[in-house]
Amino acid sequence: MNTAALSSRRLSVAPMLDWTDRHCRHFHRLLAPHAWLYTEMVTTGALLHGDIPRHLRFGEAEHPVALQLGGSEPADLARCAQLAEEWGYDEINLNCGCPSERVQRGAFGACLMHEPQLVAEGVAAMRAVTKLPVTVKHRIGIDKIEDYAFVHGFIETVSAAGCSTFIVHARNAWLKGLSPKENREIPPLRYEVAHQLKQDFPQLEILLNGGLATTAAMAEQLQHVDGVMIGREAYQNPWALIEWERAFCDPAWNPSREAIIDGMVDYAAREATEHGTPLRAISRHLLGLANGLPGARGFRRMLSDPNHLRDAQPELLREAWALIGKPASARDDAA
């Protein structure tokens, strides 16, 4: 894809392990045509020693889409950057924010913030072999390090290697004592750190991630930074992507939920024909589409019940949507 024609990163959906697979990304693209989409984190080892098509396959409709890499060895990152370009991705994002113990054992993720020079070497190695933009997603501190100079120094070092876009998850990462889920909730959000980074590095693109869930909150942050990245709220309440697309990208955007369902039926049919993809691999991402509507419980039940999904055809998505708005007795009969 012509990178000159890509939309800005004003709105993006975060990389989320076990959630933002290619089926989820296709769904999100139908909802938000201009949002940047990110893969789940893929480790360099998985690409260099595993099933490359399984990890890198994506649909043309997903553009703009970024591959998020987990790794620390510059040579390995460089080879994976070449693969990303060969497969047609629009961006390579280096994960310097994941705090999980498994990632720490691999010596990458959030612990890399302790080694900004190594991150810079990885960025430089990737930029040497690809024309794709190389970006970095990181935290604002590690454990109890809350000194602004720490994250300032990290960005100063890494940007000198040619990285011009930083996605700032505005919490510290606690490497010991908290689970990944707790790391997304317990360390306090400090948006002012991202604001200060943008002031200190006006030439860089600074995107803000962490805790954003409403259009008003995002609009407020966009007064201070270049873009917002939304995580769990986008996945759990996907219809909100319509509102955010309209607010920040295309004021005329106004598709119906029925049109989204039709799009996913078509997608599921192609996936079944071309790749043998079972409907359950796709339907799980749609469960939040009916949130707040009468019949939402029946919709979710039909699309998550193994009995309904066993050998199910794509038309099941429309059958489930038909439960929305029906009287409770009719919904119960159908379920």
Can you tell me the overall shape?
A: globular
| Annotation field: number of helices | 18
* CATH level 1 class label of the largest domain: Alpha Beta
Order of helices and strands: EHEEHHEHEHHEHEHHEHEHHHHHHHH
Structural class: alpha/beta
- Specify the CATH architecture of the largest domain: Alpha-Beta Barrel
State the end-to-end distance.
43 Å
Oligomer: single chain
**Percentage of residues in DSSP E strands:** 5-15%
Radius of gyration: 20 Å
Mean pLDDT: 93
- Please mark out the parts with pLDDT under 50 across 5 or more consecutive residues, or reply none: 329-335
CATH superfamily of the largest domain: Aldolase class I
Could you tell me the CATH topology label of the largest domain: TIM Barrel
- How many separate domains? 2
Biggest sheet details = 8 strands, parallel, barrel
Total strands: the figure is 9
**Sheet with the most strands: spatial strand order:** 1-2-4-5-6-7-8-9
- Percentage of helical residues? 40-55%
